[in-house]
Specification:
This protein has 347 residues and is an alpha/beta fold. It folds into two domains: 115 residues, NAD(P)-binding Rossmann-like Domain (Rossmann fold), CATH 3.40.50.720; 193 residues, Dihydrodipicolinate Reductase, domain 2 (2-Layer Sandwich), CATH 3.30.360.10. Helices cover 35% and strands 23% of the residues. The chain is built from ten helices and 15 strands. A nine-stranded mixed β-sheet has the order 14-13-12-11-7-10-9-8-15. A six-stranded parallel β-sheet has the order 3-2-1-4-5-6, with helices on both faces. Helix 6 crosses helix 8. The longest helix has 20 residues.
């Protein structure tokens, strides 16, 4: 079988630890080029993963290399531009989260993929975790009855500890990132809960704020470092979502779903990635997999899923359309925080 020619735009930590190694491990992929505005970062990735073509201009790379597929792992403000240009050059695209910085950009990405007849997938890797997939099966089976409430959290010490441009990382600058912890971590959990519950969020009330993080010069960063959101689903279930960059020395990437006949706890126990607690007192423990952390990188499955979609001509389950729905919730949370009002999410 002819290998898919893959290029990566953006050579930061996520490419170093996940996208590039996963591409190299896939037998159906030839990693043909890497690109970063910081040419030193691109050269470092190329050397580490034995990639022959190195660029600091993705438009030039796309025209000269003409890859079959592209991973976009740039700072957030470039997601839409790089994705749209790659699609227009005839490549399928896997774009990192958050999908883009405005709803209009998200729509343009979706429309361009349709226009070009190419796949657009968003790298919401938490949908691929084994315990999350198992939990969705349990919820859909009706074994625990109707979902009533939930709480989901993603927090760690902040990107300045692992970003490739630390300590004054682009994650802290609004012109490059647009969002802070909410766009970096909260977006993962919004997408995960949409996946697990199988329904959309229709209302939110949110606090999105900056409590602690500072630039190296001591000035407060101009993006959020904490968010706490209340979310309501179409069926009336309500729950909380927390995203934080201020959990020093620890990480929390857990979810609890409360149903009529019991609860499901995900990735809160170091050994058991899923625990079901039944209303009658019985418990079921599942040792399925472990959650990835910045310190402990495991295979996310995102690149494999993307490549498999292309090879089998199967539209991605984590599509651009799905990414847009998730981003609608993110934008609604920011609007609620700004206005101090409950915001209805219009689909």
């Amino acid at each position: 079988m002819k290998k898919l020619r893959l290029a990566i735009i953006g050579c930061g930590s996520i490419t170093k630890h996940r996208h590039a190694p996963e591409a190299k491990q896939n037998p159906n992929v030839e990693l043909v080029a890497v690109c970063d505005k910081n040419l030193d970062h691109a050269k470092a990735i190329a050397e580490k993963f034995k990639v022959g073509n190195v660029y600091d201009d993705y438009e030039k790379m796309l025209k000269e290399i003409k890859p079959d597929a592209v991973v976009v792992a740039t700072p957030n403000y470039l997601h839409a531009d790089a994705t749209i240009k790659a699609l227009k050059e005839g490549a399928h695209v896997l774009c990192e989260k958050p999908m883009a910085t405005t709803e209009d950009e998200c729509r343009m990405m979706v429309e361009t993929a349709k226009e070009m007849g190419k796949f657009l997938m968003i790298a919401h890797n938490q949908r691929l975790n084994i315990a999350h997939k198992k939990a969705k099966e349990v919820i859909q089976s009706g074994e625990l009855g109707k979902v009533l409430s939930f709480k989901t959290t993603f927090g760690h010490g902040g990107p300045e500890s692992w970003s490739s441009d630390r300590p004054d990382t682009w994650f802290f600058h609004k012109e490059a990132a647009s969002f802070g912890a909410m766009g970096d971590l909260g977006v993962h959990k919004i997408d995960l809960m949409r996946f697990l519950l199988g329904e959309e969020f229709v209302e939110t009330a949110a606090f999105v704020t900056t409590l602690s993080k500072k630039y190296p010069n001591g000035q407060p960063i101009d993006v959020d470092d904490n968010a706490v959101c209340i979310l309501k689903t179409q069926s009336g279930a309500i729950g909380t979502l927390t995203a934080s960059w201020t959990y020093p020395g620890s990480e929390d990437n857990s979810t609890v779903i409360y149903c009529e006949k019991g609860s499901i706890t995900l990735y809160a126990d170091p050994k058991f990635s899923m625990i079901i607690r039944y209303a009658n007192g019985q418990k079921a423990y599942f040792e399925l997999d472990t959650m990835q952390t910045n310190e402990r990188q495991t295979k996310s499955g995102v690149v494999d899923e993307f490549i498999d979609c292309i090879l089998t001509n199967t539209p991605p389950r984590i599509s651009g359309e799905e990414g847009l729905k998730t981003m609608k919730v993110v934008f609604a949370c920011f609007e609620s925080a700004k206005t101090g009002k409950i915001v209805r999410i219009d689909y």
